[in-house]
Amino acid sequence: MITRAGVDQARNEREARRGHQDGETELFDIFQYQFIQNAFIAGTCVAIVAAMMGYFLIVRGLTFAGHALPNIGFAGAAGAVLLGIDPVIGLLAFTISAALAIGILGKAIRERDIAVGIIMTFALGLGILFLSLYSGYAERVYSILFGQIVGISQENVLFTALSSFLTLVLLLMLYRPLLFSSFDPEVAEARGVPVNALGLAFLVLVAITVSIAVQIVGALLFFTLLIGPAATTVRIVQRPLRAILLAIILGICYTWLGIFFAANGTWPVSFYIATISFGVYLPIRLLSPLWIGQRARKSMSLRQGILSPGFQSSENEPNDVTKASGRVSGISR
What is the mean pLDDT of residues 216-235? Predict the structure, then answer.
């Protein structure tokens, strides 16, 4: 498998040809290398899935869980290495178990972060214990934290693309009920949507995706792609589908730019992608109250415009006012 040494070798080859090419051609020479092409394809697949999942994690208040699951997976991989089995088995076992525990213990919003924190710290403690008991050097375990996107093989690219496609299909199947239960769980449950079972299914799907993706991009980079683009778009657009599409576009742009800069520079991919994500989010976060406040004022004006005829007709007809208020509540939902 090609590792970071492959990037260094490619850079040395470009240095050797520097006298025969202009700067612009040299800058884009990286695209002729197979491992760079693999990195772009795998990174694109992960960015698309992460952006869609990240949107639902944010609207459901589960961003802390999105951070915890990759770290919990690290502990599972360490345990698998200690037992002499494939780290992927440990990844899946720990992340899926943690997802179920978070879904069961964190049903109440005020209890959710507490449950996530307790489970994550316990899992990290187990991971440290497993590594201390292991006598060798657990390279595959440490790669889960930082990833090896510039060293991904052709087989792993195909596996990542296939798993990403299947994940997207499942998310699209769950899209409408998951969206309904995310914004109004009480009404969704009253209309027969299995809110609790749907939440558990979504967390298990996130856990499986984490187990697959962190082997390629690492825990840090996956969490960046999971939260960064979606956190930016929810402050720009209100409609869910538009927010998801914009998050996907941002995630792909972050990934491509990060790989491009890393291949032409000396710093790691995760640093570039995390920095670009933060650099885009920060001004949006600081300026978003301007247009969010404007939307709130327009919404208030619309409500007052609908309610005002009811008040002008008669002050002694509370039933009409109540009916008008009910209609406004339905519109706002």
Answer: 88
